[in-house]
Design brief:
Layout lengths: L11 E5 H11 L8 E10 L6 E10 L9 H19 L2 E8 L9 H10 L6 E6 L6 E5 L7 H4 L6 E3 L6 H7 L56 H35 L14 H28 L5 H24 L6 H24 L5
Parallel strand pairs: 1-3, 1-7, 4-5
Antiparallel strand pairs: 2-3, 2-4, 5-6
Length: 371
């Protein structure tokens, strides 16, 4: 087991058959409501080849239904409720899953924002399913920074991990994958580049030479263009323009002086400052956020000492436990606000979730046991 996941390339992704069955059962609710949840597991490294891979062994279903336009807020609130289960699991957050009844098998703009913000690590993935009684679709999507946009929006391959050995004959029937766009042992075909010569395209700045089908057209010349112009009228016009410019400049200066003098006599109206009134629950949330910031600052100080080899895992784990407890208090206060916490409270909680995610990533990579 790899307790210190690193690297930039996406890990090979394994999903236990029981996890796939749990996800199918949760998403196929029959009411076509968009549902979602989290995927937990472990990261591993092959000692022989050095290949890194993720093993998803637990699915945590969220109680709420998902609203696509505000998926971030629902995701944060559901993760706050799942924190205790994650602590008992003592593994790694490998991603999330959700259903698309209307959008089909694709990543929406909201999905891409969520993946980039919360599930951007190479060992994480996003599972999307389209439940349907006749043709159920699904896919595992990876956020590979080196891949193009079209490739990231295409489902990736994954491995179904069986709990017991199965032979090749019974492998297909034993699979829990009901997505019709996948099959056992399927490999993505490699498209061979086309060898047909491409037609040479003209640059927009290139003008083709005239040929038999394109006769030469002489330029149009207006009457009088070939005659020698008289320079005297032009000189007189230039002198007149200069005089007119000086006159206009004087008028502009006089107008500016008049406006400035008028401003000195204009009374200044001071607008009253609008203060945001917070409820008691919101004040409790912001107090918890302040406490979390202090706990994270103290953990960051210990992280620097730990990275330099000056302290042991015990002191780092103590700082992590304090930060985790402070975030749990923050999550509880945020949950009390309900479905409409307010923009200020939502922004504060999202910032707190991002900061504690950085702490989790560092502690998971430290190799220290969870307190």
């Amino acid at each position: 087991m790899d307790t210190h996941p690193t690297g930039k390339a996406p890990y090979e992704f394994f999903i236990q058959r029981s996890v796939i069955a749990d996800i199918n059962c949760h998403l196929d609710g029959g009411d076509r409501d968009p549902r979602f949840g989290f995927v937990l597991g472990h990261t591993c490294r092959c000692p022989t080849t050095g290949v890194q891979y993720s093993v998803a062994d637990t699915a945590i279903a969220a109680r709420e239904v998902l609203v696509e336009e505000a998926s971030g807020a629902y995701l944060i609130r559901a993760w706050a409720e799942a924190r205790s289960a994650f602590a008992d699991h003592a593994g790694v957050l490998l991603g999330w899953y959700h259903s698309h009844h209307l959008l089909g098998l694709m990543l929406s703009e909201s999905d891409e924002e969520v993946n980039e913000r919360y599930f951007s690590q190479p060992w994480q993935a996003s599972i999307v399913a389209v439940p349907d009684s006749k043709r159920c679709l699904g896919g595992v999507f990876r956020l590979d920074p080196d891949a193009g946009v079209a490739e990231r929006r295409r489902p990736s391959r994954f491995y179904e991990l069986h709990d017991e050995p199965t032979d090749a004959a019974s492998e297909a029937s034993a699979s829990a994958v009901i997505w019709t766009n996948y099959e056992v042992g399927r490999e993505e075909p490699i498209e061979e580049p086309s060898q047909e010569p491409r037609e040479e395209q003209q640059s927009p700045a290139t003008v083709p030479e005239s040929g038999p089908d394109l006769p030469y057209l002489p330029p149009l010349v207006m009457p009088g263009e070939g005659e020698e112009p008289d320079l005297q009228p032009a000189r007189r016009r230039l002198k007149l323009v200069r005089l007119l410019g000086v006159f206009l400049l004087v008028m502009v200066i006089v107008a500016l002086v008049t406006v400035v003098r008028g401003l000195d006599r204009t009374p200044v109206t001071v607008l009253p400052q609008v203060r945001t009134v917070r409820t008691m629950d919101q004040r409790q949330l912001f107090a918890a956020v302040d406490g979390l910031s202090i706990a994270i600052e103290r953990y960051d100080e210990r992280a620097i000492d730990f990275n330099a080899g000056r302290i042991s895992c015990d002191l780092l784990a103590t700082g992590y436990a304090a930060a985790d407890a402070a975030f749990m208090e923050t999550a509880t206060s945020f949950g009390v606000l309900g479905g409409e916490p307010g923009r200020e409270a939502l922004d504060a909680y999202e910032t707190a979730s991002t900061e504690i995610a950085v702490v989790n990533t560092h502690f998971d990579g430290s190799g220290c046991p969870r307190p």
